[in-house]
Write a structure and sequence with these properties.
Number of helices: 24
Helix content: 40-55%
Distance between the termini: 15 Å
Shape: globular
Strand order of the largest sheet: 4-1-7-9-8
Strand content: 5-15%
Number of domains: 3
Oligomer: single chain
Length: 669
C-alpha cells in the first residue's frame, strides 16, 4: 500500500511544530530543570549496576533498591539506548534522546490512533495537537512530563493511544488482538503504573465491542495475564516487599477547568456521533467516561480506605488522554467513503472523494485554532504552546551558574561519610518575593554521587524510601508521604522546623545515617543554629550559594568487598545491644560475624541494626535476592521466550503463505 500526501501533510505539520518546539526547549544537551538530574541518575544506576530492579543503590537515602519501588521502564529505556549504540551515545546523550522521544510521542501515537479510527489524517490533527501540547496540571503533560521531568509517566501516557491503534482490528472483526498488545501493556506498567487503569479499561472496552463477549473477555484476560507475567520480575517483589516503601500521596483532587469542560462537551458530541459509526469509534467515544468512573472510584472509594499507591491525581491522566481522543471524534466526525468506513488511516487507504479534498484540511486546521483560542482563555498552563528558553536550562548552564565544579571539589575532599543536603534542590531564582517553594529549581544535587563518588541523603525529589520519610516528617513509619519535598525546603527537616534543631538532634541523626557533611544554602543561615553550636561539625568554606559543615572525624560506612559482601565495623558498650550499620534495613540483607549469622532488625530510624557482643566487630553484610525475586524473574523469562516464539511462528506462517491470512490483514500483525 502507498502512503498518500493527504495523510502525510498533517503529520508533517504536527512533527514540524513539535521538532521546532523541541529545538528551542530541549536543545542538544540534557536538561537540569527540576527532576531531570534525578532521572538521569537512575539511567546511570542501571548502566553501572545492572537492570535487576532490586539491585541495591548505596548512593541515595542510606541505600535503597532504587528501581524496585519506582517504575524502572524509563531507566531501562535510557540504558538500552546507551548499550544499543555500543556506548557511542553517552548516558547523558541517551537520556536526552529519550526526553525528545517522550515529548513527541503522545502527539504521534494520538495521530495514529485517531487517523485509523476517523479514516483521515486531517481529521486526526486537532486531537493529536492537543495530546502533544496538553499540560493542564497533568503529570504526563508537557509541563509535568517534559519540563519538570516525569518522563516515564509521559512515555506510558503515549503508549495508551498506541494500544488503541493496535486493538482497532480486533474491535472490528479480527479473531484475536495484536501480538504486541501484552508488550504494550507491560511497557505501560513498567513506565508508570498510573496509566495501567487506562490500558485495562481500553482492552475491556475492546472485548465488549462485539460478540461473543464472554469469549472475548476471556481473551482480554489472557492478554492481561501475559502482560502481568512479562512484568512479574518487577511487580511480584514490589507487592511482596511493599512494607519497605512509602506511598507518595501528595497533591489535591483532580481538576477539570474550562478547557476540560470544552473537551468534555466535544467528547459528548463524539459519543452521540459514535452510534452511527463503527465499533472502534464507539470504543474511543466510551473510553473517557469509563476513565472518569475509574478516577472517581479511586478518589472517593479507594483512597479513603487507605489505598494510596495509585492516587487519583495520577490516574486522571488516563482520563484526560481518553477525553482528548473522544473530543477529536466529536470535533472532526468520521470520514465516510462510498458507504465503507476503513479500518486504517487514510495514510494508506483509497483516494477520498473529491468533496473531501478541502473540507477535511479546513476541519483539522480550524479545530487546532479553536482549541488554541480556548486554551488561551482557560489559562497559560492549559496547552504549552511555546517555550521560553530561559525556563528550560541545560545541565551545563546550571553547573556554570551554581559553580557546581567548586562544590564537587569541596565535597570530594571532606572526611568519609554521607552528605546530608538540607534541601531537596537548589532554587534557580533569588531575591525578595521569590522564596515560594514552587519557584523554578533544580534537583541537580541528586547527581552528587556521579561527580564526587560520595553517597547522599536528601538532595533529590520526593522519594518513597523509609529514610526519606524520616527526613521529611521525622519518622520512618509506614504512613504515606503527603508533602512534596520542595514544600519543606528551608523550612523543616526530620519533622522539625529548621531553627528548632539543636546540636544533639543533629548529631543523633547524623550518626545514624553516617553523615559527615551537611550542605545548606545561604538562605537557610538563620535556621542553622544547631550546626553553628555543634561540637561535632565545623563550617568550611564553600562556593555561594552553598553553606557547608564538615564533621571533625570521618564516619565508617559499609564498604563493598571483593566477594560482593559489604563490611562495616560496629561497637557497643553493652553485650546484646543493637547497633546501627548505617544502612537502610531491607529483607534481602543477611548479617554475619566471623562466618556466623548475626541477628538483625529494622531500627527506629529505618536503618539496619545488628546485635552486638559488646566489643568491636566487623560485620559482613550479604545482599542476596530472595525467593520472590528469583521465582518472578524465571516466570518473566519463560513467558517472554514463549511470546517471542509465538511471534516468530506467526511471522514464519505469514512468509510461508501466498499472502497474509484475513486476520493478519486486518490486525496489521
Amino acid at each position: 500500500m502507498t502512503v498518500r500526501s493527504e495523510g502525510i501533510s498533517p503529520l508533517v505539520l504536527l512533527a514540524a511544530y513539535g521538532i521546532t518546539f523541541g529545538a528551542v526547549a530541549l536543545g542538544r544537551a540534557p536538561l537540569a530543570f527540576d527532576d531531570h538530574p534525578g532521572q538521569l541518575y537512575r539511567v546511570w544506576h542501571v548502566v553501572a549496576r545492572g537492570p535487576a530492579p532490586w539491585t541495591w543503590n548505596p548512593d541515595w537515602w542510606a541505600g535503597y533498591p532504587e528501581l524496585q519501588f519506582y517504575p524502572p521502564g524509563f531507566a531501562y529505556a535510557g540504558a538500552l539506548l546507551h548499550w544499543a549504540s555500543f556506548t557511542a551515545l553517552s548516558v547523558p546523550a541517551a537520556f536526552h534522546a529519550l526526553v525528545w522521544i517522550a515529548y513527541l510521542a503522545p502527539g504521534l501515537t494520538a495521530f495514529l490512533a485517531l487517523a485509523r479510527i476517523l479514516g483521515s489524517g486531517w481529521l486526526a490533527l486537532p486531537g493529536a495537537f492537543v495530546a502533544l501540547t496538553l499540560s493542564a496540571g497533568t503529570t504526563s503533560g508537557v509541563e509535568g512530563g517534559v519540563h519538570i521531568g516525569m518522563v516515564g509517566a509521559r512515555l506510558a501516557w503515549a503508549l495508551v493511544p498506541l494500544l488503541l491503534y493496535t486493538l482497532v482490528p480486533w474491535i472490528e472483526d479480527a479473531r484475536r488482538p495484536s501480538w504486541s498488545a501484552p508488550i504494550l501493556i507491560g511497557a505501560i506498567l513498567l513506565l508508570h503504573p498510573a496509566e495501567l487503569p487506562a490500558a485495562v479499561a481500553l482492552i475491556a472496552l475492546a472485548a465488549l465491542a462485539r460478540s461473543p463477549r464472554a469469549r472475548r473477555l476471556a481473551v482480554a484476560a489472557v492478554v492481561l495475564a501475559v502482560a502481568a507475567a512479562l512484568t512479574a520480575f518487577w511487580t511480584v517483589p514490589l507487592v511482596v516487599r511493599l512494607a519497605e516503601t512509602r506511598a507518595l500521596a501528595w497533591g489535591g483532587p483532580p481538576r477539570v477547568g474550562l478547557f476540560g469542560g470544552v473537551l468534555g462537551l466535544l467528547a459528548l458530541l463524539g459519543l452521540l456521533r459514535a452510534w452511527s459509526g463503527g465499533r472502534a469509534v464507539r470504543v474511543a467515544a466510551a473510553f473517557p467516561w469509563v476513565m472518569v468512573i475509574v478516577t472517581l472510584l479511586d478518589r472517593y472509594a479507594l483512597e479513603p480506605l487507605g489505598a494510596r499507591w495509585l492516587p487519583a491525581n495520577r490516574v486522571v491522566d488516563g482520563a484526560w488522554l481518553a477525553l482528548v481522543l473522544a473530543a477529536g471524534l466529536g470535533w472532526s466526525g468520521r470520514r465516510r467513503s462510498n458507504g465503507h468506513e476503513p479500518l486504517v488511516a487514510s495514510t494508506a487507504v483509497t483516494e477520498p472523494h473529491r468533496s473531501f479534498r478541502f473540507r477535511e484540511p479546513l476541519i483539522g486546521l480550524a479545530g487546532v485554532l479553536v482549541l488554541i483560542a480556548v486554551s488561551l482563555r482557560a489559562g497559560a498552563g492549559t496547552l504549552t504552546l511555546w517555550p521560553r528558553p530561559a525556563e528550560w536550562p541545560s545541565l551545563a548552564t546550571v553547573e556554570r551558574g551554581l559553580r557546581l565544579g567548586d562544590l564537587w571539589t569541596t565535597l570530594r575532599d571532606a572526611p568519609e561519610g554521607r552528605i546530608l543536603f538540607l534541601r531537596s534542590g537548589v532554587p534557580l531564582t533569588y531575591g525578595s518575593g521569590a522564596r515560594e517553594w514552587y519557584r523554578p529549581h533544580t534537583h541537580v544535587t541528586a547527581l552528587t554521587p556521579v561527580y564526587t563518588g560520595r553517597a547522599i541523603v536528601h538532595g533529590t525529589f520526593t522519594h518513597p524510601s523509609p529514610i526519606a520519610a524520616l527526613v521529611y516528617r521525622g519518622d520512618a513509619g509506614r504512613a504515606p508521604i503527603t508533602h512534596l519535598a520542595e514544600q519543606l525546603d528551608g523550612r523543616s527537616i526530620f519533622g522539625r522546623p529548621l531553627e528548632t534543631l539543636d546540636p544533639a538532634a543533629i548529631d543523633e541523626h547524623a550518626d545514624r545515617l553516617g553523615v559527615s557533611v551537611v550542605v545548606a544554602l545561604d538562605e537557610d543561615a538563620p535556621g542553622l543554629r544547631g550546626l553553628d553550636e555543634s561540637d561535632v561539625f565545623a563550617k568550611r568554606a564553600a562556593p555561594e550559594p552553598f553553606v557547608v559543615y564538615v564533621r571533625r572525624a570521618p564516619v565508617a560506612l559499609p564498604r563493598p568487598g571483593p566477594s560482593g559482601r559489604w563490611a562495616v565495623t560496629v561497637t557497643a558498650a553493652d553485650r546484646d545491644a543493637w547497633v546501627s550499620t548505617r544502612t537502610t534495613y531491607y529483607p534481602l540483607w543477611r548479617a554475619g560475624v566471623d562466618g556466623a549469622t548475626t541477628e538483625s532488625r529494622r531500627g527506629r530510624f529505618g536503618d539496619l541494626e545488628v546485635r552486638s557482643n559488646g566489643s568491636a566487630a566487623t560485620v559482613e553484610l550479604a545482599y542476596v535476592a530472595g525467593a520472590p525475586e528469583i521465582a518472578s524473574t524465571i516466570v518473566s523469562a519463560v513467558i517472554a521466550a514463549a511470546w517471542l516464539a509465538a511471534g516468530a511462528f506467526r511471522l514464519y506462517t505469514w512468509w510461508g503463505s501466498k499472502g497474509p491470512p484475513r486476520a493478519a490483514q486486518t490486525s496489521g500483525s
